[in-house]
Amino acid sequence: MTDGAVVEIGSFRGRSTVALAFGARAGRSPPVFAVDPHERFIGVLGGVFTPDDRRRFMQNVVKAGVADIVRLVNLPSVSAARAWNMPIGLLWIDGDHRLLPVLQDFSLWEPWVVIGGWIAFHDSLIREIDVHRVVELAVASGHYVRQAVVGATTVLAKVAAEQEVLA
């Protein structure tokens, strides 16, 4: 990964946040911003999310010893994106998995991703939900290339328009 902050959209109870923080610490130690409103919500895969998850998030971050590098942004992604002003080296998208919210998260946050930076889409291999469609649109734009597929996550690398990769 290149310079820039780590931004996670959708943090739930902080498991991926902790993993991102350990990865950040192993590199250049950029801050990890965990964006999640922690409001009552039922996800498309049936997950139930509540305000109590914020408490569990904080407990997990403290227990893992990464509270010094993690910053909870306790707002909806759209609100946080409107106030954002920092380059992003890694954008982890794992919020609302419906098509419009995933498109919105991608559209609002990707302009901040630096050339060479990564966008990781969690649950992108589940065809019954729409995350994979946003991945396909990003790759079709020519501004992103597939970097890796790990588990249920697709990682794209941002390339400059003049560096588009010919298939």
The tally of helices reads 5
Average the pLDDT over all residues and give the rounded result: 93
Spans of at least 5 consecutive residues with low confidence: 162-167
Proportion in β-strands: 25-35%
The general outline is: globular
| Cα gyration radius (Å) | 15 Å
What does the main sheet amount to?
7 strands, mixed
Using the coordinates shown, work out and report the CATH topology: Rossmann fold
Domain module count: 1
> Do you know the CATH architecture?
3-Layer(aba) Sandwich
What does this structure look like?
32% of the residues lie in helices and 27% in strands. It has 167 residues and is of the alpha/beta class. It contains five helices and nine strands, in the order βαβββαβαβαβαββ. The protein has a single domain, classed as 3-Layer(aba) Sandwich (Rossmann fold), CATH 3.40.50.150. Helix 3 packs parallel to helix 4. The longest helix has 13 residues.
